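As agreed, record minuted below.
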Amino acid sequence: MSEQTSRGPRRRGFGGPGGPRAVEKPNDFGKAFRQLMKYMSKYKIRLAFMMVCAIAGTVFNIVGPKILGHATTELFNGLVAKIEGTGSINFTKIGKILLSVLVLYVVSALFSFVQGLIMTGISNDAGYSLRKDISEKINRLPLGYFESRPYGDVLSRITNDVDTLQQGINQSITQLITSVTTIIGVLVMMLSINVWMTLASLLILPVSILLVTLVTRHSQHFFLDQQVWLGNVNGQVEEVYSGQNVIKAYNQEENVLHTFNSANEKLYESGWKSQFLSGMMMPVMQFVGNLGYVMIAVLGGFMVIKNAIEVGDIQSFLQYIKNFTQPIQQIAQVMNMLQSSTAASERVFEFLNEKEEVQTVENPVDPAPLKGNVVFDHVSFGYDPKQIIIHDFSCDVKNGQKIAIVGPTGAGKTTLVKLLMRFYDVNSGAIRIDGHDIRDFNRRDLRSMLGMVLQDTWLFNGTIMENIRYGRLDATDEEVIAAAKAAHAHKFIMQQPDGYDTMINEESSNISQGQKQLLTIARAILADDRILILDEATSSVDTRTEIRIQRAMDKLMKGRTSFVIAHRLSTIKDADLILAMRDGDIVEQGTHEELLKKGGFYADLYNSQFESLG
């Protein structure tokens, strides 16, 4: 896009002020969690089966200590009887008890294995599905969304946030189920051993709950800040990597480093605080748990002396105390994990809930019989409705005409073709093709009629053949080669190491800017659309090549409606109609000769390009 002033809001520059993306609404844990659960409902059958396995595995594991306590009691009673000479240790009975415990633990392990297998599948499917939904969402979002946000922010949602969410789903859901089941099951088993010891051990519960509440309350916004600043840092890294030549040319290394360090410090600070609060929970909870051990050991010893309980019951109870405090610690960790996952899910679903372009309409116009007559009928437009940049623009273009659009930077030339492509909708007025408002077309059908070559070339990581074929995916190799020859690209392509199979790297840095432009022109030639839009299509090639391309483009444009945005006015002398634009309005229109004779705005613009040749 060649007109800075007529674009929408732009992303932060290399040395621009660091700062996170503005969060429009405060973090709403409940809303984000409900959205996540609604999204996960598609896996409800597998989740239900996973819950059954998790609960069953936990229950079998919980029963073990009480049965093991019987073995301890049997061993203790046998030793006492042997010392007193009244009996001996019944190893057969102890062996049967231990064998039954072993069976319980094996069954528990099998249930846990199945549960882990199912949950891993669910989390991976959820991550896959989210990335797929985000990828499809990108294609439905308006161009203005991407022009107003850093690339790294969107990238962070697809990578970091989805990864965080996927890991959180995998670890937190099962951990929460098993922890809650363990607490309930252990409480039942403790009550079955001794009510008073159970009540005494429950004294640590309010302390544990208080600590968990305090930590989650204070850590919630730190986890959200961490995700936001991570996206900001990613955006800066992407910008710095792609803009190294600009940064070095303007000696902005120190400024860029300062901006990055500022954002990195914010990420460090939010990450440190969130992880510190998360990390301090475990030692505090262990201290609380140890207090419970001491209390139960003293109370249990007193009850054994009073013959209120068996020795094995104390051993079982101490195991249950450990099993009781451990899930509380795990829930504390899970809550922190849920905070991080929820913060990530909030950003993911915020993206998925962004307003989309309307892709289809009822009773859409069929583009097949249309010829390419275009009418701009009193069009007004502004990226911000309060700042209109195109005022009451009207123009009637006949099929097959070549329309040149000229004017200074910011006049609205590129904006005009964006409106024709329906990248944006007009604020008022209408654009019609053969009498049909373009808003009555399905967007895909509309754009299938329009071929576009931009000043900013775009090629993807793939072969030269694949990049040209992007204009028409069903084209044969022969048709691709013919299009390349028409665009005068065949010669340089054959000079590449692998010819048409040469790979273009991710940044397209292994071919020149002019060669990239030739490939995009070949792509447009291959597409063979009824309406062509050329935005300074020959700006990056030398004069000799430009002449050859101009001849090929003239042949291509013959019989097709063409809109040519040009800064080199010498290239549009043969245009059927020249629209001279200034400040969003057409100030003059006519042929090249007619406008020169007028001696007005166009003549001044044209002559200014040759003043230095005198």
Q: What stands out?
A: The chain is about 60% helix and 10% strand. Residues 91-140 form the longest helix (50 residues). The two ends are 32 Å apart (CA to CA). The longest strand covers residues 374-381.
